[in-house]
Design a protein that fits this description.
It contains 21 helices and 18 strands. It has helices spanning about 5-20, 25-40, 60-70, 90-95, 115-120, 140-150, 190-195, 200, 225-230, 240-245, 260-270, 280-290, 325-335, 345-355, 355-360, 370-380, 385-390, 390-400, 435-450, 455-475, 480-495, and strands spanning about 1-5, 50-55, 75-80, 100-105, 125-130, 155-160, 180-185, 205-210, 220-225, 245-250, 275-280, 295-300, 315-320, 340-345, 365-370, 405-410, 415, 420-425. Bound molecules: ligand NPW and potassium ion.
Length: about 500
């Protein structure tokens, strides 16, 4: 698991630790770790050209001290000082080691042909020490200008603690931000490094241990790795039967949207469900059976559909392609009235927007799996764009307002449960941005719910396997939702070797 803590928590832990350590010890540890990574990114240190972007705070101080270490190993290091002040200790260390520093004019626009721009383009490495966890709001003035100019070069860029311009606690990016190839972060990850859009600016994230771990409380955010998914995933043993492995009920698809049912069923079957009980009208039920003869189908009578819903199930998946008419609403209400875990996706989430009490008043476990547009229907006066920009914040808010677990699909899938650290899936890929992949996910996560996993863990494992399957199915060209189903067993196998 990767753990991420908020700025306030990091500051608190830093304060505790600093009180026991000599002055400057933490910054020395941070700078040494940073210099080590920079040395690895450079083809060789001696004779290389390094440009430091140095803001006025300790983030700039880290860059200056790391720069001094590179300079003492023979790199030509030049610091562009852009803050209203500068870390004096770092600056004198750099100068003593033979590095040079120039003040960048504090004009808002630094032109493309300026000396600073030329130096960045000619450098072997740019080190971004403009702002770290002390940053507030989008980058201002010359900081924004330098970040944009760095982004216009091909020069490899290492960000100090986090890429300047991304919001540490959320991953939101307002305006220009540095795009790093590598981010060297200190003590713990910051949530913004693991959630898009911030995560897309961070490149490879390397954690430098500065001794903070002992002071850190519960994380704000966790990012599961293959081993975490592997240990959580239910595996059949000698005692397993189809009933013990879990029976999943599915109320998805409709005569109009038959594919949704076929895809969700595929996700559940390849996700390892013990038995799948599908309920739907004749045409869609026949289609499901044609694709997946192992499914136990209940054909619903249009005159009395509720009477046909299967009873002996361990969990339910409701919504994809089911519609939002009166029958769908009555069915949703009936299923949510059961004491079983229920996953609501797509149309069921839309229906919930008009009847929030259906979940708010529920005591049994509920998991919502919306994308941003569906989530916007749950939160009045919120647009999908706002949700995309602040995924962690809105997933958390939805979970709290509805009192359930929420999996927000998209660039970084975020899972939130009130009172627990949120989870950020590390496997996000644009390969999944294609019709039907959400249906597969609902079936896959549903199979894990029916297998006995708590909603948060089912969501975590499902999201991880979904992304991994997409990567495994990809052989250079696009993939479809059906390819994803085919790759799920390999994804489960691959957990052990990841
Ligand atoms: N915590 C730890 O455990 C450790 C922390 N360490 C390091 O300390 C870093 C935190 O240092 P910090 O507190 O000095 O703040 P920092 O990130 O340098 O930013 C402040 C400066 O940025 C400026 N500024 C702000 N927003 C801006 C904007 N939008 N656009 C433009 N400018 C903006 C602001 O300028 P002002 O607004 O005051 O003029 C001020 O000068 C941390 O990230 C890590 O690298 C390690 O050394 C050791 C262990
Ligand atoms: K930075």
């Amino acid at each position: 698991m990767r753990y991420a803590h908020t700025v306030d928590t990091v500051r608190g832990a830093e304060g505790e630790l600093m009180a026991r350590l000599p002055d400057g010890a933490l910054m020395r540890r941070a700078a040494t770790g940073l210099a080590r990574v920079c040395a690895r990114v450079l083809p060789r240190v001696y004779g290389s050209r390094v440009v430091l972007l140095v803001g006025g705070g300790d983030n700039g101080g880290d860059a200056l001290y790391a720069g001094s270490q590179l300079a003492s190993r023979g790199a030509a290091v030049r610091a562009l000082l852009v803050g209203s002040r500068v870390h004096e200790g770092g600056l004198s260390a750099l100068r003593s080691a033979g590095g040079r520093a120039v003040e960048v004019p504090r004009t808002t626009e630094i032109p493309a042909g300026s000396e600073a721009a030329t130096e960045m383009a000619a450098a072997d490495l740019i080190v971004d020490g403009l702002v770290g966890i002390g940053g507030t709001g989008g980058l201002r003035g010359p900081h924004a200008s330098l970040a944009a100019l760095a982004g216009a070069t091909e020069t490899p860029t290492v960000a100090v603690d986090l890429p300047s311009g991304i919001e540490a606690d959320t991953g939101a990016v307002e305006g220009t931000a540095v795009r790093a190839d590598v981010t060297v972060t200190f003590g713990t990850h910051k949530p913004g490094l693991l959630v898009s859009p911030g995560a897309e600016h961070a490149g490879v994230v390397e954690l430098v241990d500065i001794g903070l771990a002992g002071e850190l409380p519960t994380a704000r955010l966790e990012s599961p790795q293959a081993g975490d998914v592997d240990v959580s995933l239910p595996r059949p043993g000698p005692e397993s039967t189809k009933y013990r492995r879990g029976v999943l009920g599915m109320a998805v698809g409709s005569d109009r949207y038959r594919g949704a049912a076929v895809l969700a069923a595929g996700g559940a079957l390849r996700g390892g469900v013990g038995m799948l009980r599908y309920a739907g009208h004749d045409a869609v039920a026949t289609e499901v059976l044609r694709h997946w003869p192992e499914v136990v189908v209940s054909v619903l009578d249009p005159e009395d559909p509720l009477a046909g819903l299967p009873e002996r199930v361990d969990a339910w998946v409701v919504g994809p392609g089911r519609g939002v008419d009166g029958d769908a609403e009555t069915e949703l209400e009936a299923i949510l009235g059961s004491p079983l875990p229920v996953l609501l996706d797509a149309d069921a989430v839309t229906l919930l927007g008009t009847r929030p009490r259906l979940v708010r008043d529920r005591e049994a476990p509920t998991l919502l799996t919306p994308h941003a547009a569906e989530m916007a229907r749950l939160l009045p006066d919120t647009s999908p764009r706002e949700i995309e920009a602040r995924r962690l914040e809105y997933a958390t808010r939805t979970a709290e307002e509805y009192g359930c677990v929420v999996l927000l699909k998209g660039s970084t899938t975020v899972i939130a449960e009130p009172g627990r650290p949120a989870l950020a899936d590390p496997n996000g890929t644009s390969l999944l941005a294609t019709a039907g992949t959400g249906d597969v996910l609902s079936g896959l996560v549903g199979s894990l719910l029916s297998g006995g996993l708590a909603p948060r863990e089912a969501a975590m494992c499902g999201a991880y396997l979904h992304g991994l399957a997409a990567r495994l199915a990809h052989d250079g060209g696009p993939i479809s939702a059906s390819d994803l189903i085919g790759a799920l067993p390999s994804a489960i196998r691959a957990l052990r070797t990841e």
